[in-house]
Amino acid sequence: MTAVQAPPSAPEVLGRCRGLVQPALREAVGRLHPWVAEMAGYSFGWCEVGGAPAAAPGGKGVRQALSVLGAEAAGADGAAGVPAAVAVELVHTFSLLHDDIMDGDATRRRRPAVWKAYGTGPAVLAGDALFALAVETLATAPQGAGTVRLLSAALADLVRGQADDLLFATRPWTGPERVTADEYRSMAEGKTGALLGCAAALGAVLGGAGEGTADALDRAGRHLGIAFQLVDDVLGIWGDPAVTGKPVGGDLRQRKKTYPVLAALDSPAARGLPELLDAPGREAEAAALIDAAGGRTAALTQARAHTATARALLSAAPLATEAAGQLVQLLDHLAGRQL
Amino acid sequence: MTAVQAPPSAPEVLGRCRGLVQPALREAVGRLHPWVAEMAGYSFGWCEVGGAPAAAPGGKGVRQALSVLGAEAAGADGAAGVPAAVAVELVHTFSLLHDDIMDGDATRRRRPAVWKAYGTGPAVLAGDALFALAVETLATAPQGAGTVRLLSAALADLVRGQADDLLFATRPWTGPERVTADEYRSMAEGKTGALLGCAAALGAVLGGAGEGTADALDRAGRHLGIAFQLVDDVLGIWGDPAVTGKPVGGDLRQRKKTYPVLAALDSPAARGLPELLDAPGREAEAAALIDAAGGRTAALTQARAHTATARALLSAAPLATEAAGQLVQLLDHLAGRQL
Fold this sequence. Notes:
2 copies of one chain form a homodimer. Chain A is mainly α. Chain A has helices at 10-30, 34-44, 62-73, 82-103, 114-118, 120-139, 144-168, 181-206, 211-238, 241-244, 250-253, 259-265, 273-278, 283-292, 295-316, 321-335; strands at 107-108, 111-112. Chain A has a two-stranded antiparallel sheet. The mean pLDDT of chain A is 93. The interface between A and B is large, with 42 and 42 residues.
């Protein structure tokens, strides 16, 4: 008699997928120039500067899990999604390396960012190498042309989202030149959603899914990305630094055009907020006023709406039941982090 | 009666190929985020900072010409090679943008480098966007998987060559840790040869060539790249700054491990050269000693040998006569620049 098993939790799903993908990811990184491989290994948390082995926290591994689950949702073995998983983790790491340079972020996962640890030039190079390796990984896997097309479209969106995000910094808080909620959504979809959607869609394609199914997974991933970014924005203002690993008020100090701020600015209760946002050292007051003006609630409402859309897309698509259940579990876990 | 026409000169070949490729290149760049497209246009010499049209010198367009001639050498119309030409020009420009950051080169083609004109972060982003666009261009063209595989292999070599070049700077002039001629060749093949070889091979594949022909063109391009780099090294020490656009003694001031220096250091006539190379302001003396120790002659001899190998590879391959003749013409032109 088999005992009835509880469905796996999101951390269990992430752990299982990581176990499936890690050997291939390490093998791919091992083919890089040794110096570049060390920088990549440092980013993944596998080693320290100089190459000594480490077990530093890497990322959550969301993207690789989406690829594995995408393949399983298409009815294939999770192993079919591994080339997609490797490619999207490489692209994600490439984008973190380069984004940290662009944003001047000196810390990543509680360690010096690669550009701080190795220098800006080497960090640019390591990112380029990971990018090239991701493309090579897909191009040499089955259905190369189709999967590379999906990846390059996501890359174009990712760059476009990052460009918008950088340009948002030059825009005013109010007036006709202000950043609108629509522009925010488009930026978040590009910067965060495109690769999440691509991860799931690529896995599905490698698992033999038709275009409709891959497209539904892509769109679900994009909505998940927007929800993820919205939650990130909330955590960036009100999150516990001990949990988020980010400094208190960092996003406010950097005058980022995050959604809670944009939503609050639209409210009559936010009188005086633009001045507060521009005043150094008054981040705590600004955070309180954003909250009072409804910025936090608006962001969380939006996040829930995008999560619901993603969930609806998943239930409407013809997916294998077990994998679909794990995708939803992952979705709820990510959209509900520490709130 | 048709007058007998002289075969076109290398500049005529370059001009004809440029005319064929430019509309597609401009169309591709036009699909980028407007800000990124401006940085790309600035790099290509099409506009000034701010977007005002310009006709600044772009590159020579060697890579796009190799793709067009590769397609013609395979018996196809040159237009068949255009997607390859667009992709390799985008990759070349991406690598210039990022290399200028890594090498700290503030000037490119007599104008401020993109990172100087727009900032380091934006230049990183623009490079990434061009890279992604190159991959997309090939993935959506015929034979996507095969051509993307060729491109990603060249990209891996390019990054490996750039990594070696950066690490050469940390090595001593003499002793067991010195940079050997073999290591130099491998670096130059990766950094300069891989993309030239790939350009011709991609064009040939799109023109319908078999694997053997594409491979011969790839190898010829790699030898051309090594020759090109050797000539660049000579010009970097003894070239006329008014012609090269590079400052006198720049390579020596940056203590680059160029071939003339490495070759001279192997000669007993180079006594005292390491000390001279490390002494600021003594570049003219160093250049004279490198010359006296045979460094310039050795580099030019090597360049001629690699050009001859490239020419031999081209004559042994089953190429369309007219295109093959133009490839050789281009080869001789590039390897014989201003010497």
